[in-house]
Amino acid sequence: MGAYQGQDAAETFVRFLYAEHGRSVLAYATRLTGDRAAAEDVVQETLVRAWKHADDLDQTKGSVRGWLLTVARNIVTDRARARAARPIEVADVVDQPPVERDHSDSVVNTMVVLGALDQVSPEHREVLVELYYRGRSVAEAAKELGVPPGTVKSRTYYALRALRAVMAGNNGEVAR
Predict the structure, then answer these.
(1) What does the alpha-carbon distance between residue 63 and residue 150 come to, in Å, rounded to a whole number?
(2) Residues of the chain whose pLDDT is less than 50?
(3) What is the 8-class DSSP label of residue 146?
(4) Torsion of CA 27, 32, 34, 40, to 10 degrees
(5) Which pLDDT does position 71 carry in this prediction?
(6) How far apart are CA 64 and CA 72, in angstroms?
(7) pLDDT at res. 99
(8) Longest Cα pair distance anywhere in the chain, in angstroms?
(9) Residue 53, pLDDT score
(10) Nearest to 162 by CA among 153, 152, 172
């Protein structure tokens, strides 16, 4: 093509580049970014750089398409690096006091569970208190209650079934 002198010649050259190589550069940029809109921005920036360097581009010195693809890749790389280097943006926080949870739900839940515990057998209540209220392991609860670990496990199973039945409104206790 030769050297491009003047504004009109450079614009004509860029139009030629877009017509000749635009689809290839767009496809390449789309593969690199995974986003069609971002790829279109990359193509636009690539053509702006080609317009700025129109005098330096000469098809006799190598592949213009290769130059365009290299520029597109560099633009994508630069944008990725800029995003990685920039701290994460957060929205402005309006000065508001933090939302505090209303503890009334937990009080009601505790009262419901305690009421249900009163309706299960003493053996079931003991094992549930040791495991869930005091946070003991099966072995620790077995030692504390003076029963084998297997008994703690089976009582826990039946105690939870009984507790569920009471809380569901089935006032009768589930048999062991």
Answers:
(1) 79
(2) 1-4, 172-176
(3) T
(4) -50
(5) 92
(6) 12
(7) 62
(8) 99
(9) 80
(10) 172
